Amino acid sequence: MSASVDPKSAVRLQDQFSVQRPRPLRQRTRGIQSPETNKFAQVTYALTDLLFISLNASVVFCARFVFGQPGATRQNLFASFLDPVLVQQIGFLVIYALLLLLAMASNGMYEKNKPQSFVDNSLGVGKCVLFATLLLTAIIYVSGVKTVSRLLVGFTGMLTLATLILWRLWFRGLLKRRVERGEGSRNTLIVGASELGQAIARHLEDHKHLGYTVKGFLDSNHRTDPRLLGRIEEFSQVARAHFIDEILIVPPAERDVITKLVWDARQQRINVKIVPDVLVGLGRRTRWDYVGEFPVAEIYREPIPVFGLVLKRAVDIAMSAIALIITLPFCLVCAVALRLDSRGDTFYRSWRVGKKGRKFVCYKFRTMVENADELKDRFVHLNEREGLLFKITNDPRVTRVGKILRKYSIDEIPQFWNVLKGDMSLVGPRPPVISEYEQYNLEQLRRMDVMPGITGLWQVSARHDPSFENYVAWDLEYIENWNLWLDLKIMLQTLPVVLKGTNH
Q1: CB crowding 18-52: b at 16 or more within 10 Å, else e
Q2: What's the pLDDT score for residue 488?
């Protein structure tokens, strides 16, 4: 599709953007906040609050009416769940939980895009807890129920206030650490290195929990800025090379420049947000959002199958954990056999490149002699693959036990640990070594948009194809057409390949 577009009508451009396209795999980032993601996050926050409120009420209730009572009274309480005192206490605690959740929701405490510091958020939680506690106390007083303890309500409120603030503090810290490790963040490119652009960058870097990683700026004027990645005309190349998930366009910017950027970003499925000063006439369906404390308008967003990706990760965790437990005795046998067969470590550790260029250590059983990497250059002339791939069917560096492990893909069992850690998935493109990754062109870098996998479409469809270009094409085919059913089919097709011992 041509990248040119009529700049005279931004409204017509906005209408073109509403055309539905097939939903490809979008593992570019788990942090992107689509409407579906926001709803999922809001429900998760509310359910977490409800869990803590219930636990707090249960702890206070048990302390007051179970462990704080003589043995005989304690037995009487447990004798019947229809005891009037027990029913009244539980009923009012349920009312308290509902009141608190409604107060939190009405005060915007579950709005992910609402810009709030931790202090402001804690004060908001405090106001909601105080309101719900006082309102429940008033309800108890008006109802005339004498058996419900005000102390029970008070202690529940204090414990709830502490736990709701503490779990939010912990969660913010968790998000910040994940972003600093390069996980779960949005790689962001700021178009415009003006004073406003610099302010946005500083704000996002000071608030890591927001989930943004500023990769740099695009600007045709501020050439002395050390974080300048290129001119605006070089957007496509810069976005691909730095795995950009989202661009922020800040004023001043010409209308033609914005139109071209929005169109190019759409072609690469990159989210686009614009600060308010340049919004006039860009369309009626513009969605307002926040980037930290800065208001922006979202012009285009690539739909993300949030539920599918969450389920994919859940399957990865469950299956890899089960596989590691089941194969543990067999792995011990393999370790002993490797040690008896040749000198060297049991495991081969190799630095690989994962999603969005993130480097990690990939684990396999050692199948070659101890100095195999140093001997590689001696056998380059035997390479049976084309381009960046290296493969020799009867590699002289492979040990006797290693041949058996490779034939049935047993050497890859330790990679289930990489899956459990979150470095890899069960299904996805194979993770390249660093030397291979450094030679990728911009098109080949698209392989790194998703989590690498133990098996993939290329492994079950064209395992012996020597062409590196075809290898990349199969991976891109998987990325563009991903769904859970495709993952299942690939895993089912992998089993006979492994059992037949065709991996040689």
Answers
A1: eeeeeebbbbbbbbbbbeebbebbeeebeeebeeb
A2: 87
Instruction: Tell me the angle at which helices 255-267 and 10-17 cross, rounded to the nearest 10 degrees.
Output: 10
Contact 38, 114 (CB under 8 A): no
Q: What is the DSSP letter of 69?
A: S
Q: Which two structure tokens, joined as six digits, stand for 113?
A: 């895009």
Q: Which of 5-14, 133-142, 391-400 has the lowest mean pLDDT?
A: 5-14
Report phi then psi at 204, rounded to 5: -70, -35
Q: How many residues does the chain have?
A: 504
Beta strands 271-274 and 228-230, pairing class: unpaired
The rounded distance, in Å, linking the Cα atoms of 77 and 83 is: 7
Q: Is the pLDDT of residue 378 over 80?
A: no
Instruction: Please report where in the chains the tokens 């069917």 appear, as a residue.
Output: 393
**What pLDDT is attached to residue 146?**
67
- Please report, as a single letter, which amino acid is at residue 146: K
- Interatomic CA distance for residues 219 and 261, integer angstroms: 12
Domain ranges of the chain: 35-180, 185-304, 307-499
Q: CATH says 185-304 is which class?
A: alpha beta
- With a cut of 90, say whether residue 453 has pLDDT above it: yes
Spatial distance between the Cα atoms of 216 and 234, rounded to a whole number of angstroms: 13
